[in-house]
Write a structure and sequence with these properties.
This protein is of the alpha+beta class. It is about 35% helix and about 30% strand. Strands 1, 2, 8, 9, 10, 11, 17 and 18 form an 8-stranded mixed β-sheet that branches. The longest helix has 28 residues, at about 320-350. Bound molecules: flavin-adenine dinucleotide and 3,4-dihydroxybenzoic acid.
Length: about 400
């Protein structure tokens, strides 16, 4: 028996468990992968100001404060030139922090273990029951055999391919989806970053992104085909493509080094509404996916669980469920804002082969306008650093 059963130990599930703990609410977190797999999974790296503030306020920001890299600007590159967008200047001092998602997950797992509250890895056959009767039960299997937990509520934090959203009858959900005709090949390289800030680049060969993880590790992405396979991308092909797409006329290009990790991420926009069915609440990628160009996925997941923890806290403190009732509408409003921004960044910066020369010139005109107008740069900057949690 627990108050909130949490399915999934990604950033959403772990942060929710921690925020509930701080409010004295008990939870059980179930994860179908191993602890090592979850900690080593390389994904996003850009934390909005609101995510950083949340980690600090929740008491899990010490390593982030030491090792995270605060960036007050970002570069947009096209036609051989890099243009800096001064985010801090345009947003009254807000910035992003570069800190790997897997480091966030590592810090949250350490915090959870420190509380002594349950966090079970390597569980299988997770199944939800009793959602429609309002008496939810999570069934699952551990090495010791089948298990069940009766919950007052369930938080589905199990990502896009999880079982929580799939447990809601489809006629109770509306879904919105857009699939893009490209994907990202991402690598981690043992090479000191050659720029102190990120570079988003549109080249006629396609999009490329320069990012980093530390003084010695560079993170790079390049647009590839959605059906591409990492086997088609030997290291020299990756470097030659990255250099062609990122090199600018002033001679800047990424430093090369040993490639430690490679992976392909498909790109989609996806929203489900509502984000709740009775006692089951969806949060993070279980409820919505954005293409990675705006770096919003992880940050949206954090905003969801911040709101959900606040709603549960209010419910258990006062017996009133008004914030639980508002959870979905408020989440959808933030989601659609992030969807619009992520779609816009993606469309502006990727080469779409089904488009014609008119579209390519329009894309370049959009970039020219962006880097020459303070109003346009402010619009990018305020969305990129993220709106405060509210
Ligand atoms: P997840 O991190 O997906 O966590 C869900 C957890 O639930 C996982 O640990 C999963 O193993 C577990 N789970 C799944 N099914 C079950 C089950 N049946 N039972 C128990 N547990 C289950 N965003 C960016 O901003 N930039 C990026 O570069 C970027 N790259 C990405 C690359 C990939 C391959 C993917 C999939 C996503 C990427 N994202 C990126 C998005 C970002 O990482 C996600 O938005 C973020 O992970 C969302 O956190 P979450 O906790 O909601 O979901
Ligand atoms: C990173 C990922 C993103 O999706 C992005 O837009 C910027 C940076 C990263 O992994 O560093």
């Amino acid at each position: 028996m627990t108050q909130v059963g949490i399915v999934g130990a990604g950033p959403a599930g772990l942060m929710l468990g921690h925020l509930l703990h701080l409010r004295g609410i008990d939870s059980v977190i179930l994860e179908n992968r191993s602890r090592e797999y979850v900690i080593e999974r390389v994904r996003a790296g850009v934390l909005e100001q609101g995510t950083v503030d949340l980690m600090r306020e929740a008491g899990v920001g010490a390593r982030l404060d030491r090792e995270g890299m605060r960036h007050e600007g970002v570069y947009i590159a096209f036609r051989g030139r890099r243009h800096r967008v001064d985010m801090a200047d345009l947003t009254g001092g807000r910035a992003i922090t570069v800190y790997g998602q897997n480091e966030v997950v590592r810090d949250l797992i350490d915090a959870r273990v420190g509380t002594g509250r349950p966090l079970d890895f390597d569980v299988s056959d997770v199944r939800l029951e009793g959602i429609e009767t309002g008496r939810p039960v999570i069934h699952y299997r551990k090495a010791a055999g089948p298990q069940r937990i009766t919950c007052e509520f369930i938080a589905g934090c199990d990502g896009f391919h999880g079982i929580s959203r799939a447990s809601i009858p489809s006629d109770r959900l509306q879904t919105y989806e857009k699939i893009y005709p490209f994907a990202w090949l991402g690598i981690l390289a043992n090479a000191p970053p050659s720029s102190p800030e990120l570079v988003y680049s549109l080249h006629e060969r396609g999009f490329a992104l320069f990012s980093m993880r530390s003084d010695t590790v560079t993170r790079l992405y390049l647009q590839c085909r959605p059906d591409d396979d990492v086997a088609h991308w030997p290291d020299d092909r990756i470097w030659s493509e990255l250099n062609a797409r990122l090199r600018t006329d002033d001679g800047w290009q990424p430093n090369e080094g040993a490639i430690m990790q490679k992976g392909i991420t498909p790109m989609r926009s996806f929203v489900v509404a509502p984000m709740r069915d009775g006692p089951l609440f969806l949060a993070g990628d279980a409820a919505h996916i954005v293409p990675p160009t705006g770096a919003k996925g992880l940050n949206l997941a954090m905003a969801d669980v911040w709101r959900l923890a606040d709603a549960f806290g209010h419910y258990y403190a006062t017996g009133r469920d008004d914030r639980l009732k508002d959870y979905s509408a408020r989440g959808l409003s933030r989601t659609w804002r992030a969807q619009r921004f992520s779609w816009w960044m993606t469309s502006m910066l990727h080469r779409n082969d089904s488009e014609n020369p008119f579209d390519h010139e329009r894309q370049l005109a959009e970039l020219e306008y962006l880097v020459s107008s303070r109003a346009a740069m402010t619009s990018l900057a305020e969305n990129y650093v993220g709106t405060p949690l509210e």
